[in-house]
Each structure stands twice: as structure tokens, then as C-alpha cells.
Design a protein that fits this description.
Largest sheet: 4 strands, antiparallel
CATH superfamily of the largest domain: RNA polymerase II/Efflux pump adaptor protein, barrel-sandwich hybrid domain
Number of strands: 10
Strand content: 35-45%
Length: about 140
């Protein structure tokens, strides 16, 4: 029986809640390795983060694979630090086999940093791009 995306999302939530950072499942004909990255494990998001990161929003990978900052047919990256972007803008790609899954900006703002290393393996929920939201996109509760 194939592993469904909803099952992967549910497993990731369980891992995060329980403090487990990885799980590997193997069945005949399929395997799944799920790695949860935490801010403490990512040096780009640690104590050395810039003051602009205080209210930062993180665009995260929805799938595991290899991070690409640009489309393979283009030299120019999707985003660069200092660039203004809109919510839903593609900020990178995660390559899974022959497929490319877009990583999208969850809010409009200014790109503070691309925190994922190009070509590195990223896990589900891995931070990809740090965005400083524009004042009009900050929700006030």
C-alpha cells in the first residue's frame, strides 16, 4: 500500500510533538525517511541570526529532497536577500527524483536570507527562506 501525503504530514506532526527528529520506514517496493529540522539544528536560524529575523516568517519545504535556488534551465535564483516578494511567490525548488516541488512564500515581504544550502538534502518542514514581513502583512491579534 503506497504511503499517502496525508500520512507523511501526520507522521511529521507526531515527530515534532514527541521531539523525535527522524524516522525511516521500509516496506517491499517503497521506503520513507522523514527528517524534521528544528531551528536549533540550523545554524542559519540560531543565536547568530540577524535582528531582522525577530519577526521573520520562514518558507519551509513541503517535501524531502534536494534544494535548488534556481530552476535547472536558468542561472538566476528565484529570490535574493533584499528582494521584495509577494505571498505565494516561488522561492526555491525541492528536487525529488525527476520532479521539482516549489517552495512558496507564506507571506509578502522582504527576503532576509536563503537559509538552505543549494544542493543540500532538505527534509519535510526544513527552513528554506527567511522573510521579513511587510507591516501590512503582519497579523495583529
Amino acid at each position: 500500500m503506497p504511503i499517502e501525503l496525508t500520512d507523511i504530514e501526520h507522521l511529521a506532526q507526531i515527530l515534532e510533538k514527541s521531539g523525535v527528529d527522524a524516522i525511516e520506514i521500509e516496506e517491499p517496493g517503497q521506503s520513507l525517511k522523514l527528517v524534521i529540522e528544528t531551528p536549533a539544528a540550523s545554524p542559519a536560524l540560531g543565536a547568530a541570526a540577524s535582528p531582522a529575523a525577530d519577526h521573520a516568517i520562514i518558507a519551509k519545504a513541503d517535501v524531502a529532497g534536494y534544494f535548488l535556488a534556481a530552476h535547472p534551465w536558468r542561472d538566476k535564483p528565484f529570490v535574493a536577500p533584499g528582494q521584495r516578494i509577494e505571498a505565494g511567490a516561488i522561492v526555491g525548488l525541492v528536487k525529488i527524483g525527476l520532479l521539482y516541488a516549489p517552495v512558496v512564500a507564506p507571506t509578502a515581504g522582504i527576503v532576509d536570507a536563503v537559509v538552505a544550502e543549494v544542493g543540500a538534502t532538505v527534509g519535510y518542514g526544513a527552513p528554506i527562506v527567511r522573510i521579513h514581513p511587510l507591516p501590512e502583512s503582519i497579523a495583529i491579534n
